[in-house]
Each structure stands twice: as C-alpha cells, then as structure tokens.
Design brief:
This protein is an alpha/beta fold. The strands form two sheets. It has a five-stranded parallel beta sheet with strand order 1-2-5-6-7, with helices on both faces. It has a two-stranded antiparallel sheet with strand order 3-4. Helix 2 crosses helix 3 (64-75). The protein has two domains: 2-94 and 155-257, Rossmann fold, CATH 3.40.50; 96-147, no CATH class. It contains ten helices and seven strands. It is 41% helix and 12% strand. The chain has helices at residues 2-9, 36-51, 64-75, 99-102, 120-129, 138-147, 152-168, 190-198, 223-235, 243-249, and strands at residues 58-62, 80-84, 108-109, 150-151, 176-181, 204-209, 254-257.
Length: 258
C-alpha cells in the first residue's frame, strides 16, 4: 500500500496508513493475541484520525483490508470506497470448515511445506514477495518452507471476518471502485464479481486487470496504470454527484484491462 499512498500524497491528498493490531512486517506472531474485531477497531481508529483532519474521506482496502473496509462502510459514513483483491470467501478445501476446531490443537499452518518449487506459478508467487531468493538452492527452499507460516487461529479469524463482510455487502451504498487481478491465485476474482453484483451502491465499477496477481499494487506491468486509475477515481470525490453516473451503474459497468 505504500506505493499507492505515496502516489496519492504526491497529488496533495492527505494519506493515513493503518497498522492493524497484531500485524508487523517482521513477524505475524502478534496475530495469536488478536481477533478480527481487534483488526476492525484498528481500522476504525485510523478512520477517526483521518476524519478529524479531513472533510472528505476515501477508504482504500486491499485483500483482508477490503473486508474490513466493507464493515467500516456499513457503520461509518465516508465519501468513496476502493476495494482491491477483496475476499468474500476463502479458497481451499474441506479443511476450511475445520478451522474453528483446528485452531485449538494446531498453532501454525505452513503453506509452502508441500509446495512444488518447480511449478512456475509457485515460484512466481514466492519471488513476488522476495525477488532475490535463489529457489534453485535447496537450503534456501528448505528455509522458505519453514519460514512461511500463518497462525491457524488468525486464519480462522479471517474466515469469520470474511463471512461477516459478505453479509453486509448489500447494505453498503458508498460509491465504490472494485479492482482485481485475473491471475490472483489467493483470492478468487469471482469474489469481486459477486461483490459488484450484490453491492448496495448504485455508483460502482469493476475493473479486472489481466496478467496481474494478488499483489495488485506491488507487481505487474499495470502497477502504474492501477495507481492512476485509483487517483482518477479519488479525484471525483470533489465533484458533485452526476445523475448519469448513477444511471450507468445500474447496468454492469465492468472492464478487463489487458
């Protein structure tokens, strides 16, 4: 999110990035002690800080942050909403249903433990986060398999958060820009399609970006174009509502960008 924040700040917008409870760039260990309600409270506190300084507020949420933003839109009034790679369900198999029980017996989930490091998609996903890793070095691969871990309890909290966010979608009426990468292997692009269809707002737009993965703001050839598209949407916050925008949005306003 830093790159997008800098892009908007350079255009003289006040930007505030929220640090969610239990989240850290160094470690996810703190997530053991937090719930989705703690994460939401962090988001609402950040919103309150920005609202105290600004007459108009645009909320931008990426991935789990998109789910938090939906809950925020249900409870608080603001001018615009941007949802990026937002989940309405968690991808996975039957084990997702066991999370409420498993969290009491299993501390960590290691998503890379059995991953095929020769699979180009897997390699691309790892290198997206750590481009300097040598995945042909077996010692490096072994370290990756053990280093990449998620608290099972936090995954279950995410499941509950996403379920709650999905419930409130029809009650969200703020003008919304929805974006998703078509190559997202973590959150299904179908989530954004459902989000668009069920969102209560009459002013909404869905944009799919081809050749773009989950990290829609970090990598890919469209990164700058995505920044510009969001900035253009934010710019309209100062413009009066136009009837034709509402009328246009009643039909599917969907675009795929190659």
């Amino acid at each position: 999110m830093r790159g997008l924040g800098e892009h908007l700040a350079a255009r003289n917008y006040t930007v505030h990035a929220v640090q969610l409870a239990g989240h850290s760039h160094e470690s996810l260990d703190g997530m053991h002690e937090t719930t989705w309600r703690d994460w939401y409270n962090s988001a609402e506190e950040g919103f309150n800080q920005l609202r105290s300084r600004c007459a108009r507020v645009v909320v931008v949420g990426f991935s789990m942050g998109g789910a938090l933003s939906l809950l925020l839109a249900r409870r608080r009034a603001f001018e615009q909403l941007v949802l990026l790679s937002t989940p309405l369900w968690l991808q996975g198999d039957w084990r997702i249903g066991l999370l409420p029980i498993a969290r009491h017996f299993i501390e960590w989930y290691y998503p890379m433990e059995h991953a095929d490091m020769n699979d180009p998609m897997v390699r691309a996903r790892v290198l997206e986060r750590a481009p300097n890793l040598n995945l042909d070095d077996q010692e490096v691969v072994a370290k990756v398999r053990r280093a990449v871990r998620l608290p099972v309890g936090a995954i279950d909290e995410l499941r509950m958060l996403v379920n709650r966010a999905r419930q409130v979608v029809p009650a969200v009426h703020v003008p919304t820009l929805i974006m998703h990468g078509l190559n997202d292997g973590i959150i299904s692009p179908d989530c954004s399609a459902e989000l668009y269809q069920r969102l209560g707002s009459t002013e909404k737009e869905l944009v799919y970006w081809e050749h773009t993965s989950h990290q829609i703001l970090l990598t890919g050839n469209h990164r700058q174009a995505i920044f510009n598209r969001i900035a253009e949407f934010v710019r309209t916050v100062d413009q009066p509502r136009r009837l034709e925008r509402t009328e246009r949005a009643t039909a599917p306003l969907m675009q795929s960008v190659a």
